[in-house]
Amino acid sequence: MSKHINNGKHILKAVMSVGLLMLISCNDSAVPQQPADNWVTFGIADYDGWNEITRGSELTYNLLKETGLGVFAYHTGSTPWEDYIASSSPNFMNNTKVAYNTETEDWEYFPLRYWNSTDDSKISFFAYAPYNESQYLEGSKMTFTQPSEFDEQVDMCWSTTDNRDLERETSSGKDVQLHFHHALSRIGFTITVKGEDNAPLPEGVTMTIQEVAVKGFGTGALDLAVFSQPAQWSAYDNMKEFPLNASEHFVEGNYVLTKDNTGSQPLSKPGTFLMVIPKSYSADEPYKVIVRYKVELEDQDGREYIEYRDESAGVIPIDLVSGKTYIFNIITNLKKSVIGDVSITDWKENSEYVVIQGIVPETVK
Questions:
Q1: Which listed site, 29, 32, 319, 334, has its alpha carbon 20 to 30 Å from 325?
Q2: pLDDT for res 157
Q3: Is 271 left (phi over 0), alpha (psi -120 to 50) or beta?
Q4: CB 360: neighbour CB atoms within 10 A?
Q5: Residue 358 zone, left/alpha/beta (φ > 0; ψ -120 to 50; rest)
Q6: How far is CA 337 from the centre of its chain?
Q7: What is the rounded radius of gyration, in angstroms, for the C-alpha atoms of the chain?
Q8: How far is CA 150 from the centre of its chain?
Q9: What is the C-alpha to C-alpha distance for residues 113 and 101, in angstroms, rounded to an integer?
C-alpha cells in the first residue's frame, strides 16, 4: 500500500481491500485471490480550513491520523439507494474504522472487502470523522452528542461526496472519494462593558467576567446523505450549557473590567471556540449566551467594598449554520447582558465576513 498525492491537494489514496458481505478470516489461505482492479479504494481529501491551529479539539489532518474515521456502507443489490428502505444496520461496512499506520504511512482497515462481481450491484458509502467506536447509523442519520466540557468537545465532520449507488463496472479501479466538512458551528466572544446610560463604569466599580456559556442542544441527528453545506440536523435533544471560564479560556486581563474599558475587546482567547450543534432560531427553544460575573464596589477611599455575583442571559436571535464561525459581542453592564453585533465567517482563515449590526435580543435578569 502506498500514499499518493493527487493534483497538489494532498488527496491520500489508501488502498483498502474490501470483501463482499462476508467476514474474511485472518488466515491468509482463507482469503480468496482478487484482482487489484477489484479492490475498493478510498481517497481522503483535505479541505479549506482543516489545518487551522485552534483549540477545542478541532479536527486537523494530523489529528485525523490519531483518531481515524468511520465508514458505513449499504449493499442494496440492484435497488437504488432512494428506493431502499434501510431499517437495519448497514450490511456492508458498519462503522468500520479507517486508521493510519505510522510505520507504512498507509490507511488501513479490516476485515478486507471487495467489489461485487455483479456489475449492477450497488453499494452506498457514508463517512464521518473523528472515529467513535460506539457510533451507529439508522438509514443515513447518525446520532451525535457533544460533551459539555470544552476539552472534551468533538469537531464532528462528515463526507460531502455523494457515494451512493456505486457499481463495480464504473467504480472499480477508482477511489471512493471522502471529502470532509465541519458539521458544527463554532462560537467565540468579545466583550463591551457599559455603565448606566451607556456611560463608562463608575469610579471604584470592577466587573469580573467569570464564565460565559452557550446554552443549546447537546444531541442531534446528522444526515450523512446530505452532500453539501449546510449540514442537516434533526431530532434535537438534551438542552445544556457549554461553558468557557476565565482562568483557562479568556484573554488575560480582558475579563476584568473597569471605567477604563470603553470599547469592544476580545474575551475568548484567539483560536478558542465552542463547537455546538447548529440550529435555526426558534422562539420556543432559543439558544442563549449566559454571562456569569462578579462586581466589586469600593468606596471613594478604596477601603471598603461590597461584592456580589450575578448572571444574565441573552437569546441568540439568528440561525446557526454548520461550517461557520460566529463572534458574539457581549454588551454588559451592572444589570444585564445583551448580544450587540455578530461577525460571521466561514470556518477557515482569511475569509470575508458579514457583520449584523444592532442585535438586541430578549434578556433575562
A1: 334
A2: 92
A3: left
A4: 12
A5: left
A6: 27
A7: 25
A8: 13
A9: 19
> Which long-range contacts link 337-341 to residues 24+ away (Cβ below 8 Å)?
337/289, 337/291, 337/312, 337/313, 337/363, 338/314, 338/363, 339/289, 339/314, 339/315, 340/192, 340/264
At residue 263, the pLDDT reads: 78
pLDDT number for residue 33: 46
Given CA atoms 78, 84, 89, 95 in this order, what sign does their dihedral have?
positive
Q: Is the per-residue pLDDT at 130 higher than 60?
A: yes
pTM: 0.79
What one-letter code names the amino acid at 235? A
C-alpha cell at 31: 482469503
Q: What is the largest CA-CA distance in the chain?
A: 89
d(CA 313, CA 317): 12
What local confidence, expressed as pLDDT, does residue 269 receive?
A: 92
What's the rounded Cα separation, in Å, for the pair 137 and 92? 13
Q: What percent of the chain has pLDDT over 70?
A: 68
